[in-house]
């Protein structure tokens, strides 16, 4: 038996998982879970990265002699580090308002089609590229969040490839930073070091980390697939069907794995992006605003003094009439933190639909809308790749949301295979195990262990497709508006 540590940071919580590799399977146990949230100070939305660091140290302290540690997190965000190696500013959250203006300004200089063709990345306000353009603080280095934590653990700066691809600054053709693009937008590439291959062993933990956590001085820090979505996709337990994945958490990332990118105008218009996978593959996917809408709604109700329990809410939402009102979860009004139920109600009122009242009605509206958005993304995948999608693997926390999985099966007319819910931590650990030679290299050997480690639940589609098609059509004018 070998023990590996997977540090997995999400937009709403972070955790440290003990990954036990034994007889071709990985078993995960959580050693620490701590909240993560963005905090507003003087109109700027920050992450509390030092709070995360404290949670990580606590989780590592609870582990019994792991051979290695790997860190993954949400994409695109970074910490700025000065010449002395210290953080010079608190990392800003990708939902901060500064990025939209920077996007508009950059796109005036370099068109969306050119950016998409060069990097494969869908221009979205949160791409690191636009964040850099909005940056006001100067620094020596910019390290993406998992690389920042890896630097604090090992003292070695890295720019791991899967997460680097999400910046919008990596050249699709070379896999390295695009000097030409940086020059066009006036960005100093000196902030970034060479792109680090996924699975690079960075080196042992620093003595100060060993002292603070009790980890052995020989514990290796590994640049795992550090983009959480890349880690989750690395752990999808594909069977024999041609399947899409939905990495479902704060976001729903709906995609397929491919050998080659698609950078056609149609892919750009349909909102698809080409991110790097663990083996240099392409994760061709669309970002659908996922359980963020539900999580923010729950946070709002709790602030208002409602006693909300998720299981009870979902049970009630299951009994609400389906497709009564639907929203486009990717509408810009839902992007910022805040009173989501009120925004959902105003969207429904403006589009002439019944206005959801109770929390169960709002939750039903959100889940129907997400299932519909999943359907549209799967249709987009089929049209753009030319390959049929026979089944859908839902991985990540959303795999535990039985109602969303069932509705996704209903809306898409495809079987949904739900799980593992901890796909991100599993993928993180699997890539570490490959880096250490504990599992043979390549996606197939990794997937065999993923399959042995997970038992997905199957949801078959119920009922006719027509009501979903009609609801999608109902949304069409709202999207244009
Ligand atoms: C999901 C995720 C997603 C990114 C977003 C910023 O956690 O990493 O893949 O697009 O956060």
Automatic annotation (TrEMBL):
EC class of the enzyme, as a word: transferase
Keywords of this entry: ATP-binding, Carbohydrate metabolism, Kinase, Nucleotide-binding, Rhamnose metabolism, Transferase, Xylose metabolism
GO terms classed as biological process: D-xylose metabolic process; rhamnose catabolic process
Signal peptide: none
Domain of life: Bacteria
Claim: Zinc is one of the keywords in the record: no
Residue ranges annotated for the Carbohydrate kinase FGGY N-terminal domain, each copy included: 6-233
Region: Disordered, residue numbers: 451-481
Family: Belongs to the FGGY kinase family.
Descriptive protein name: Rhamnulokinase
Gene source species: Glycomyces lechevalierae
Organism taxonomic ancestry: Bacteria, Bacillati, Actinomycetota, Actinomycetes, Glycomycetales
